Amino acid sequence: MTEVLVEEQAGVAWVTINRPDVRNALSRAVNTRMTDVALELDQKDSVRAIVLTGAGDKAFCAGADLKERKGVPASETGPYINAIATAIETWGEIRKPTICMMNGSAYGGGLELAMACDLRILVDGAEVGLTEVRLGIMPGAGGTQRLPRLVGEARAKELILLGRRITAGRAAEIGLVHQAVARDQLRATVEGMLAELAGCAPLSLMSAKSAIQRGYGKELSEALSIERECYEVTLYSEDRDEGLAAFAEGRPPRYKGN
Ligand code: COA
């Protein structure tokens, strides 16, 4: 489906939501495809990192497709909203590192999707917000849970209850995005992060991500057992031996993902 483009280059999958005319809004078809793409890329061995972006320069994603949603009968509302929640949840569960290259503003489900990625780089001049309360609904695809985890409860309440749209600079200041950069620096910044990731062992990245995601918010002793379980995956890996050998020989490691 051309509304979600997937291109693989040197171990990186570049995924583009391609509906610039409606600011990359998440239609039912896009949500279904986004779920499938996330599952496929998670399983594909040749893919070590994933970049998610939107087409055009106006918006990364304007959230749920409000025009399509208006026509959904009450009897279909449940499955309809499940499709967006499933897409975002499936992106959040990808085991590999994910970077959201936010080429423009993100609202509602668009920001919820960005928050399900590991790293977020936002273009200067864009805005972000969970604006759902202004539309008679509320964030329902992870927003009320992921936003406080990223920026703290007080700021999350400010943003969600006031339905505020904040600037890229403010989003970076409060830790909602990792960096706000000029448009001509966006791709280079993401490529810089990809280069850093490429120097790391794939199993280490997946295990560390899993430890953070599974352990965060748990009681410390339980979280530490989760960390130990994830650590053990790396401990007996071939890449661990390669890392130690490369260090001893003073050369860059050649990781294979085993
Ligand atoms: N769903 C469906 N269509 C959307 C959309 C959405 N979420 N957001 C924008 N569009 C459509 C507009 O209706 C318009 O369509 P038209 O050309 O047929 O009139 C087109 O995209 C361009 O939108 P426009 O508002 O003219 O573009 P803009 O660049 O000036 O502003 C936004 C872009 C994203 C800031 C603005 O469209 C907006 O605020 N959208 C709603 C975002 C929102 O509240 N999302 C939360 C969803 S829960």
Could you characterize what this model shows?
The chain has 258 residues and is α/β, with parallel strands linked by helices. It contains eleven helices and ten strands.
Highlighted features:
258 residues, 49% helix, binds coenzyme A, 10 strands, single chain, alpha/beta
Radius of gyration: 19 Å
SSE order: EEHEEHHEEHEEHHEHEHHHH
Shape estimate:
globular
* Tally of DSSP helical segments: 11
Sheet bearing the most strands, described? 6 strands, mixed
Short description:
The chain is α/β, with parallel strands linked by helices. The chain has helices at residues 28-43, 66-70, 77-92, 109-115, 143-151, 153-161, 168-173, 183-198, 202-215, 220-235, 238-249; strands at 4-9, 12-17, 49-54, 59-61, 98-102, 105-107, 119-123, 127-129, 166-167, 179-181.
Layout of helices and strands:
Blueprint: E1 4-9, E2 12-17, H1 28-43, E3 49-54, E4 59-61, H2 66-70, H3 77-92, E5 98-102, E6 105-107, H4 109-115, E7 119-123, E8 127-129, H5 143-151, H6 153-161, E9 166-167, H7 168-173, E10 179-181, H8 183-198, H9 202-215, H10 220-235, H11 238-249
Parallel strand pairs: 2-3, 3-5, 4-6, 5-7, 6-8, 7-10
Antiparallel strand pairs: 1-2, 8-9
Helix pairs in contact: 1-3, 3-4, 4-5, 5-6, 9-10
Coenzyme A binds at residues 22-23, 25, 58-59, 62-67, 105, 107-109, 131-132, 135.
